[in-house]
C-alpha cells in the first residue's frame, strides 16, 4: 500500500502532469496541560510520526483545485468566490486562503492534492496538521515571508474564524514547531517555549484510540471556553488583575466562585489545577521522576472527567484498564475530548502484553475494536520534495 507521501505525489502527477512542492505537517500528542491553551496557560505537546501531506503547485488564474486523495473527492473554487463547504475537509484548506487574503498577502490560485495518516477524530489534531501544511506550502509557493510563528497563528485564526472552533494555539504550534525527541513546554500567552528532551529509556508513548467521536465535541468545546471566560469575569470583580484563568489561584477560585454555578466553579477549578499540575510535572521530568509524572497524568484524567466533563464512558473505561497494569506509568484522555485517544506511558518490555490486555478488555466491555499507535516524536512542518 502507498504511504501518504507517495499517494499525494503520484495523484498530483497523474492529475496535473507536473512536479509539485510536497509539504508534510504532523499531528501531535500532548503529555499534560489539557484545555489550558485558550486559558493562556501552559501545554506540553510534541509533533508525532503521523502527518498531513500536501502536494501543490501554482496556477496563473485565481482558481483553486483541491483533491482529497484518501476520500477520492475533489472540489473547485476560487480566490474570489469561496465559501464554507458542507463536505468539511475543504474548510481546513480554505480557512488558510481566507486568512492570507484578509492579511493582503499576494497569492494566486493553486492545484493541490492532500492526504494524511493522522487518524481523524482521534484527538491527534489532524485538522491543525492540514491547516499548517497548507499555510507552510502557500508561504513557500508565493514567497510570503511568513515566520513559523506567523504560520501557527494564521492556522489557529483560520480554525477560529472560518471553521468556527474557538481553539487555542497548542495544536498548530506543536505541528509547526515540533522537534524530534523533544516535547515543547509552551507558554500560551507569551508564546515563549522551551524544548524539553523526552527520550525516556525503556518507555513508549502509547495511544489507545477509543474509535468513538461523540457529536458534542466542537459545540461543547466552545461552551467550555465561554464558561472559563465567565469564571474570569466573576473573579475580576474582586481581582481585576486576573485577565485569564492562567492568572488565577486556587484560593481565588474558592473565594470568588464557590457560590457561582457548579459548572463554572468546576471548570475553573480544573483549569487552575491543571496549569499548576503541568508546572509540577515539568519539575518531575527534570528530576527524572517519571513515576510522579505518570501519576499526574491520572490526576489530569480525573479532572477532565469529573470537573471539566469532557470525557466519555469509553475513555474512562480505557483509563481504568490502564490503572490495573503495573507496566503503565500514567494515562489520560488527550485533546478536546468526547472521544479520541487515551495517551499512556508504557514500559517497553511489557508493551505487547499490555496492549493485548487493554484491547481485549475494551472489546469484552464495549464490543468495539480499538486502534493502538506507538508514537515517536518527530520534527514539525517540513518540505519533502
Ligand atoms: C483541541 C484544541 F484544538 C486545542 O487548542 C486544545 O484546546 C485541546 O483541544 C485541549 O487541550 O485539540
Automatic annotation (TrEMBL):
Superkingdom of this protein's organism: Bacteria
InterPro entries: Galactokinase, Galactokinase_bac, Galactokinase_CS, GalKase_N, GHMP_kinase_C_dom, GHMP_kinase_C_sf, GHMP_kinase_N_dom, GHMP_knse_ATP-bd_CS
GO MF annotation terms: ATP binding; galactokinase activity; magnesium ion binding
UniProt-annotated binding residues for substrate: 34-37, 221
EC number(s) on file: 2.7.1.6
Places the protein is found: Cytoplasm
Chain ranges of the GHMP kinase N-terminal domain: 91-179
Active site per database record: 171 (proton acceptor)
Site feature Transition state stabilizer, where: 28
UniProt domain GHMP kinase C-terminal: residue ranges: 284-362
Gene3D superfamilies, sorted: 3.30.230.10, GHMP kinase, C-terminal domain
Residue span(s) of domain Galactokinase N-terminal: 10-58
UniProt record, GO biological process: galactose metabolic process
Pathway terms, separated by semicolons: Carbohydrate metabolism; galactose metabolism
Residue sites binding ATP per the record: 121-127
GO cellular component: cytosol
Residues the record lists as binding Mg(2+): 127, 159
Keyword Magnesium annotated: yes
Keywords for this protein: ATP-binding, Carbohydrate metabolism, Cytoplasm, Galactose metabolism, Kinase, Magnesium, Metal-binding, Nucleotide-binding, Transferase
UniProt family annotation: Belongs to the GHMP kinase family. GalK subfamily.
HAMAP family for this protein: Galactokinase (MF_00246)
Record protein name field: Galactokinase
Phylogenetic lineage: Bacteria, Pseudomonadati, Bacteroidota, Sphingobacteriia, Sphingobacteriales
Designated gene of the protein: galK
Amino acid at each position: 500500500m502507498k504511504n501518504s507521501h507517495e499517494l499525494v505525489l503520484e495523484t498530483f502527477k497523474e492529475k496535473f502532469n507536473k512536479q509539485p512542492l510536497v509539504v508534510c505537517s504532523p499531528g501531535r500528542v500532548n503529555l499534560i496541560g489539557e484545555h489550558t491553551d485558550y486559558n493562556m496557560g501552559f501545554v506540553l505537546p510534541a509533533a508525532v510520526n503521523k502527518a498531513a501531506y500536501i502536494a501543490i503547485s501554482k496556477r496563473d488564474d485565481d482558481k483553486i483545485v483541491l483533491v482529497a486523495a484518501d476520500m477520492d473527492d475533489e472540489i473547485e473554487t476560487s480566490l474570489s468566490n469561496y465559501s464554507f463547504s458542507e463536505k468539511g475537509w475543504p474548510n481546513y484548506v480554505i480557512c488558510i486562503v481566507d486568512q492570507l487574503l484578509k492579511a493582503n498577502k499576494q497569492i494566486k490560485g493553486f492545484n493541490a492534492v492532500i492526504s494524511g495518516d493522522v487518524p481523524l477524530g482521534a484527538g491527534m489534531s489532524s485538522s491543525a496538521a492540514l491547516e499548517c501544511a497548507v499555510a507552510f506550502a502557500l508561504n513557500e509557493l508565493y514567497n510570503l515571508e511568513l515566520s513559523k510563528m506567523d504560520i501557527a497563528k494564521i492556522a489557529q485564526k483560520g480554525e477560529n474564524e472560518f471553521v468556527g472552533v474557538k481553539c487555542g494555539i497548542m495544536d498548530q504550534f506543536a505541528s509547526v514547531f515540533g522537534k524530534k525527541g523533544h516535547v515543547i513546554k509552551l507558554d500560551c500567552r507569551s508564546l515563549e517555549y522551551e524544548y524539553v528532551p523526552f527520550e525516556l529509556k525503556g518507555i513508549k508513548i502509547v495511544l489507545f484510540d477509543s474509535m468513538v467521536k461523540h457529536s458534542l465535541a466542537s459545540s461543547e468545546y466552545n461552551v467550555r471556553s465561554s464558561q472559563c471566560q465567565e469564571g474570569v469575569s466573576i473573579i475580576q470583580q474582586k481581582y481585576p488583575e486576573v485577565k485569564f484563568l492562567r492568572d488565577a489561584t486556587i484560593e481565588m477560585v474558592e473565594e470568588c466562585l464557590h457560590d457561582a454555578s457548579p459548572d463554572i466553579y468546576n471548570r475553573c477549578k480544573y483549569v487552575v489545577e491543571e496549569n499548576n499540575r503541568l508546572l509540577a510535572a515539568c519539575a518531575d521530568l527534570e528530576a527524572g521522576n517519571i513515576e510522579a509524572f505518570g501519576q499526574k497524568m491520572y490526576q489530569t484524567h480525573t479532572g477532565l472527567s469529573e470537573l471539566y466533563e469532557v470525557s466519555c464512558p469509553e475513555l474512562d473505561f480505557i483509563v481504568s484498564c490502564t490503572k490495573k497494569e503495573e507496566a503503565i506509568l500514567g494515562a489520560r484522555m488527550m485533546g478536546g475530548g468526547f472521544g479520541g485517544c487515551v495517551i499512556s506511558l508504557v514500559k517497553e518490555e511489557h508493551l505487547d502484553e499490555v496492549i493485548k490486555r487493554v484491547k481485549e478488555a475494551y472489546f469484552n466491555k464495549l464490543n468495539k475494536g480499538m486502534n493502538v499507535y506507538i508514537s515517536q516524536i518527530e520534527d514539525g512542518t517540513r518540505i519533502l520534495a
